[in-house]
Write the structure tokens for this entry.
Amino acid sequence: GYTAFQFCFVLIQSAAFGGVFTGFGIARDFEYGFARRLLLAAPNRSGIVLGYVLAALVRWAVTATVLTLVAVLAGMNVFGGPIDVFGMFALAFLINIAGLLWASGVAMRFRTMQAGPVMQMPVFLTLFFAPVYVPLGLLDGWIEALARVNPLTYVLEAVRSMLAGDEVHVLLAFGLALALIAGFAFWALRGLRSAEAAG
């Protein structure tokens, strides 16, 4: 049903923005000097990024649990089996990590909350140009062209298909999510080096 169709978008959106909002926390930590103390105290500074990743995952797990309970109570049908449901949440966790790594790279470069729009806007636009309200096959024109090259389109379609027990684009979606994580991990670690150099 449409409840399940929209739940998948809300799940992915909450995962992506859960990571981004943790990036806001990183920027705030720099503004108040806490992150600089972490940089001084940590023998392996890459662990700082890993710590923020774990914090983002825990925070989002609470959000995902509440969203799922509300959706089930609202009558959402789940046709996928336990492996499908696990895969759906695993894919959303990967998107959460990608969102956090993107935002942390920005936060560590700018080290101010004023960089919030730079963290948020690209993620918002990427989500906005995915097939949110209708399936990809019903889009046409320029919005279809954008949706077809948008990596989150395939993540969203995979999550929807797993909830339906159908498995469409699942391997592609996991591959794209892992590629985003790899690229944004490099981005975040370069941001960490920038923060170290700034003192």
Notes: The helical segments are 2-31, 34-41, 46-73, 82-110, 116-128, 141-149, 151-164, 170-198. The chain has eight helices and no strands.
